[in-house]
Amino acid sequence: MNEPLLRELVPAVIGVLVRRGADFAAAEDAVQEALAEAVRVWPDHSPRDPKGWLVTVAWRKFLDAARAETSRRNREVRVEAEPVPGQCEAVDDTLQLYFLCAHPSLTPASAVALTLRAVGGLTTRQVAQAYLVPEATMAQRISRAKRTVSEVRFNQPGDVATVLRVLYLVFNEGYSGDVDLAAEAIRLTRQLAAKTHHEEVAGLLALMLLHHARRPARTGADGRLVPLAEQDRRLWDTRLIAEGVDVLQAALARDRLGEFQAQAAIAALHADAQKAEETDWVQIVEWYDELVRLTDSPVARLNRAVAVGEADGPRAGLAALAGLDPALPRHSAVLAYLHERDGDLVTAARLYAEAARSAPSLPELEHLTRQAARLNARLRG
Amino acid sequence: MAKYLLLKHYRGAPASVNDVPMEQWTPEEVSAHIQYMRDFATRLESTGEFVDEQALSSEGTFVRYDGEGRPPITDGPFAETKDLIAGWMVIDVDTYERALELAGELSAAPGAGGKPIHEWLEVRPFYGEQCTVTE
């Protein structure tokens, strides 16, 4: 059975149920139940019209649940078996679902979970595994999120920026368990890009494609992190890079720059270099200038300092670092790198060790410890 | 089967025999150490004895309730003298002897000069479930 195809149908089927008069939370539950039934039944009896099948089964599940609910409350049956005429068909249900699941009233963790289930069609168990929390915890997170958005009208226009933040969070989580969150984020962003003509949606899609293209080179055979400059560029996925560059160019041509397009442009310049030495650092610095202008983010300034160090030498990089809060994540790692390039190995070794102690992840801790060890070994002679 | 916690300390455990900070090892020694730890966990999975493994950052703060309507009091980051847990592995094994044996193997992870670190690990039994059948 084609599970990706099945999951692609989920948002549209939820949309149909909502248009027929189901509230979002009940529709979403019903579609999840229909999915579970599809997984059971389809291997033996594959339907000719998968979406029609899902709509029929999900609607039946919804009616069953609604009747049970109504009789529990001992009221008359209000829900008729006949679908009520829907509201305006021109509204794209899938798009509305993206907005609803990334609604600003939700915390980031809830928005991520709800998006993966209602838009992505993942089961609660899959979402829980991907985020390494117990299934019961994730089930609670999702049902609370659904309660939070229960008052939001389904056809309300939403803010694309909040949706993009959620998709970016999913992408950055990488992958664990049997769900590849990065690939799932790309699928959902691709689907969103097909439904809107927002430049930043295209920008984010390009950014994801360009980063994903490098994934095979980012980790060594023994699980170690391989920094960009040392990656085996033959392992980069040229098909993804080409697609990312195309998507980005089309977006940039519309001349409405945003932070994701700027980040994607930086990623594209890296992807462009056959060897690390051929990287166009001057242009990368220019894009970081744009990024800093757009976001005023300290993290962007920190990364800009690395690029300045490559374009204009380590002293210039160190000068660009001045004034940034030393408590910024990866600040000491950048400082260590620039000092090493400047030839001050003693300071660099000390800073790498310091950076290792405050590393945000185990692979980074190991990488920075190795860097400190490498310099200390050189210093011992 | 019984579960045991193998606890590794940044600070607070007696000093290990081969006590050289990791950044003073060679990069190859660092890699060999990390590989040993990975292989150890993989092997315990294959014997059906692995439960969980987590590493903790060296940052930490003590926190306590300070009364109704007041924000909690914090004490930290931890002073140099405080015990500091670095991480743990949870194993599910048949006997206490097996838990000790495995902790010993973990403590033999290679360090500076490729020699075992001989670091002290704390082995702590979990409370078990109430037996269904009691005489």
Structural class of chain A: mainly alpha
Radius of gyration computed on alpha carbons of chain A:
24 Å
Fraction in beta strands of chain A: under 5%
Distance between the termini of chain A: 61 Å
The assembly state of the depicted protein chains is heterodimer
Helix content of chain B: 10-25%
Helical content class of chain A: 55-70%
The sequence of SSEs of chain B as H and E is EHEEEEHE
- Count of separate structural domains of chain A: 5
* Extended strand count of chain A: 2
In whole angstroms, the N-to-C terminal distance of chain B is 19 Å
Shape of chain B: flat
Q: Taking strands numbered 1, 2, ... along the chain, how are they ordered across the largest sheet of chain B? A: 2-5-1-6
Average pLDDT figure of chain B: 92
CATH superfamily of chain B: Dimeric alpha+beta barrel
Structural class of chain B: alpha+beta
CATH class categorisation of the largest domain in chain A: Mainly Alpha
In spatial order, strands of the major sheet of chain A run 1-2
| Number of DSSP E strands of chain B | 6
Number of domains of chain B: 1
Pfam family, one (chain A): Sigma70_r4_2
GO molecular function, one term (chain A): sigma factor activity
Keywords (chain A): Sigma factor, Transcription, Transcription regulation
Protein name (chain A): RNA polymerase sigma factor (Sigma-70 family)
Give structural notes.
The complex is a heterodimer of chains A (381) and B (135). Chain A is mostly helical and 381 residues long. Chain A contains 19 helices and two strands. Chain A has helices at 3-19, 24-41, 50-72, 93-101, 108-119, 124-130, 135-148, 160-172, 181-193, 199-213, 215-218, 238-252, 259-272, 281-295, 298-312, 314-321, 331-341, 345-357, 362-380; strands spanning 175-176, 179-180. Chain A has a two-stranded antiparallel sheet with strand order 1-2. In chain A, a hairpin with a 2-residue loop joins strand 1 and strand 2. In chain A, helix 6 crosses helix 7 (135-148), helix 12 crosses helix 13 (259-272) and helix 14 packs antiparallel against helix 15. The longest helix of chain A has 23 residues, at 50-72. Chain A is elongated, with a radius of gyration of 24 Å. Chain A starts with a helix and ends with a helix. In chain B, strand 3 and strand 4 (73-75) form a beta hairpin. The mean pLDDT of chain B is 92. The interface between A and B is medium-sized, with 21 and 17 residues.
